[in-house]
Amino acid sequence: MFDTVVVATDGSESVKRAVDVALDLADRFDADVHALSVVDASEVDASPQQLREELRTALETTADAALATVEDRADGEVTTAIREGRPAAEICEYVREVDADVVATGTRGRHGENRLLLGSVAERIVRTSPVPVLSVRQLEPTGETETDVDGDDSAAEV
Fold it and tell me: Which residues form the UspA domain (predicted)?
């Protein structure tokens, strides 16, 4: 059912669970994994001219680290890519290019909880993606576990 899974990552804490869920999905279906990180061009363009290259380099370093995290967590090979542009648009374009079956993303990014339910990038991906989107929220650490239908204690929730 799934041959190609794309994981969109910015290296934030909230995307770590999405990476794990996406890798588990890929393992279950023996799917190819692509990890993508997008350097937000609007952040670079909004910075003072004399700082733009330094900021671009810092954002690319962050993107490299985010992709390395996906590679480290994966059992198999991961194809990685860094793009620059508007994150949601670049992610959807990449999904088309690699003929992905699903794209996984966290619900909040590096800028934190600036939207009630989904971060603005995650929301745009959900609205514009040509393939299904697996949006995975980070569970809040509560110290308590929930009991699932089978009576097992579990804190896992998608």
Answer: 1-137
CATH code where residue 24 lies: 3.40.50.620
CA pair distance 106, 14, nearest whole angstrom: 6
* Per-residue pLDDT at 140: 63
Helices (H), 30-86: 41-46, 52-73
| CA 92 to centroid of chain Cα atoms | 12
Domain that holds residue 100: 4-154
Prediction pTM value: 0.81
- Tracing tokens 């600036």 back to the chain, one arrives at 114
Overall domain count for the chain: 1
User: Are the beta carbons of 39 and 61 closer than 8 angstroms?
Assistant: no
Burial (CB count within 10 angstroms: exposed 0-12, middle 13-18, buried 19+), residue 15: buried
Map residue 34 onto helix, strand or coil.
strand
Quote the tokens at residue 126. 């959900």
Contact between 26 and 5 under an 8 Å Cβ cutoff? The reply is yes
Residue that wins the pLDDT comparison between 157 and 141: 141
> What are the residue ranges of helices labelled H in the chain?
13-29, 41-46, 52-73, 87-97, 120-128
